[in-house]
Amino acid sequence: MTAQLLEGSAAIGEAMIAAGCRFFAGYPMTPFTEVLEHMAKRLPEVGGSCVNAESELEAVGMAWGAAATGTRSATGSTGQGLSLMQESIAEAAVAQVPLVILNMARAQGDYFQATRGGGHGDYRTPVLAPMDVAEAVVLVQRAFHLADEWRNPVLLFGDYYLAHTYSSVDVSPLDLGPLPPKDWALDGSSSGSGRARLVSPLGDTKRRDEPGYDLADFYTRAAAKTAAMVEGIERLADVGWCDDAELVVVAFGTAGKYVRYAVAQLREEGHRVGYVRPVTLFPFPDAAVREAAAGARLVAVYENNQGQMVDDVRLALEGSVPTRFIGRLSLDTSGFGIAPDYDVDVLRARIGGLLAEIGGGS
Amino acid sequence: MSGVPGVQATVTTRGHVVIDVDACKGCDLCIDACPPRVLVMTTHEVNATGYRYPLLLPGCTGCKACSQICPDFVFQVYKLAEPVEVPLESAP
Amino acid sequence: MTELRIQRVEGRRVLDTGAAPPGARLVDDFTPSLIDVGEHHLCPGCGEPIAMRSVLETIEELGVIQRSIGVFGIGCYTAFSNNLDVEVLQALHGRAPSLATGVKRAKPDTVVFTIQGDGDMVNEGLQEVIHTAARGERVTCIMLNNGVFGETGGHITATTVLGQRTKNTLEGRDGREHGYPIRLSTMLAELEGVAFVGRCAVNNAGNVARTRRMLRRAFEAQINDEGFSFVEILTMCPTGWFIDTHEAPDYLEQHLAATHAIGVLKDTAARNPAVGSEA
């Protein structure tokens, strides 16, 4: 396949289709709406189904049902809509349902919601945060792969910029390796066999000996499986110029792209500054952050919020390097996450201020 | 008719139920559901979990009303190969 | 000649019910074949296992077992969700119709049904079932309506009838204070996507048989691609009604069924005279 000029929402939609996603349900909400539009148009053309759900509660339920049949399925919204979905995301994780959920967020205030989960119980969801459309095309497909590999919901954290930037991208299906067979998936064929399948947040096997779920047994095994997933998932980070850096700047998503550019300019001018851009927000790339900051005198965290990922950076560093938050909530009047602060000169000024403070640079 | 001298009163029985006595929770639903009224609850006998349970009198038709209404799946219903006349008064 | 063994219990001459007489033909087994373990922890006199049996035996009769998937809500009946020889997708409280929608859209050849209570379907997830019906999803939603939250021990639901005493309407449901009951079947029958709506009960043998006929028609509507189908089954909850088990069938008739009237509310095809004539 060759590159085509696509809006981010369409590219994400095409990447889902390339990954084999054949069911999508959603409820319109800026800046997620265009992903839904694209899926509503395209899924029927490839033999799939897209339902214009009457609420986010129903959207995630429909995607859960379709995913339970082994069909690659997804839903999405912005953070507000994901708030409505949290009960289902929490339980779908325990029920081992491989769902993909898009958060086309407004700014970056949903970091805690995404990485901690707004739902109940002892569950976790992997979170992938692309910085641009090209990376999203890859990470969307990776999200489906991880969901199937670990039988767990996986979140993709995007934003207004990702949804609405046009880029020339190649949306070819990626071979991400073998996956376990979906022998748990429901299609009715095991009904009446004496071994009918069960997909449930209360237990994963039917008990033939006595009635009732054994919740102690199931929750304990589910917790062990979650722990194995957290250990097993490769933690991705984009790291640059950190070997001799006195200042390391950490940022994710679209903000990470701007920070990377500002740092590149400062490097060219001879400043000893590097950057880390976490790509898996959960599990957090602790080791990459620690290693990048090993020789630094200061670590700065830029986010378009009041400071959320900075907690994870501090946890990763375990106090080894002083850490400063240099972000803030930056919005235009729409509130959709268009940030006046996403400006290389603004970011350069903040990073440059820190360089002056620690006396680093040329 | 049992009062007529010299006539042995019988009741025609076309069906039979096997009762899983210990599965019963004594709810009485089968008693009213039974069209020929041949199920009666014990009055003081109880099963292993302490519930009264149904007894079967002659005259079952094998209609399945009891098994269809029992919440605890206590009944197994049979149709007899041929109707049986069960004497009402003779000793067992 | 078949012999029936007679024994004496409590002074009564009764038949020995320990075994089947020779030559007799089995017509109904203890536990329906699609239930793995017949034992359950539901209360004495509960109507839900009766309704479960009716649903499962209807699926068996229709010969669609190997295409069937049940989506369960949360309530006392959830005891059966890990206990059926039917594939089960366990949903959250109120959300089963959306999960059923996803299943059916992804696998259109399946026969999909939900099992939900009145608390699950009418309280927590009212919009789910209404939208699923309006979309005309080819699924069959089944509501076990006992007019009370049974699992929590007897609390008011959206279908609780006026005057009914519950743990949080101690003097009885007062419309002005607690609102009025929702007749969901009646609402659904209005919607264009709906092919069949029936309301029945399991309080006596006749109504159980009628429930079976309605279930059969509802599943046929799904299988024949006619539209959404819905069966509301009124069930006894003597524990949540605070009455003796043997009073529950009459209580259902006099209270629950007086507000939620039994009958076929809609049948767009009316192809089945046995059911259609009941309307």
What does this structure look like?
The complex is a heterotrimer of chains A (362), B (92) and C (279). Chain A is built from twelve helices and 15 strands. Chain A is α/β, with parallel strands linked by helices and 362 residues long. In chain A, the strands form three sheets. In chain A, strands 3-2-4-5-7-6-13 form a seven-stranded mixed sheet, sandwiched between helices. A five-stranded mixed sheet of chain A has the order 10-12-11-14-15, sandwiched between helices. Chain A has a two-stranded antiparallel sheet with strand order 1-8. The model of chain A has no long low-confidence stretch (mean pLDDT 96). Chain B has 92 residues and is mainly β. In chain B, 11% of the residues lie in helices and 32% in strands. In chain B, the strands form two sheets. Chain B has a two-stranded antiparallel sheet. A two-stranded antiparallel sheet of chain B has the order 2-3. Chain C is α/β, with parallel strands linked by helices. The longest helix of chain C is centred in the C-terminal third of the chain and has 19 residues. At the A-C interface, helix 3, helix 4 and strand 9 of A face strand 4, strand 5, helix 2 and helix 4 of C.
H-E order of chain B: EHEEHE
Rough outline of chain B: globular
Low-confidence stretches of chain B: none
Give the tally of β-strands of chain B: 4
| Number of β-strand runs of chain C | 10
Residue fraction in strands of chain C: 15-25%
Percent helix of chain B: 10-25%
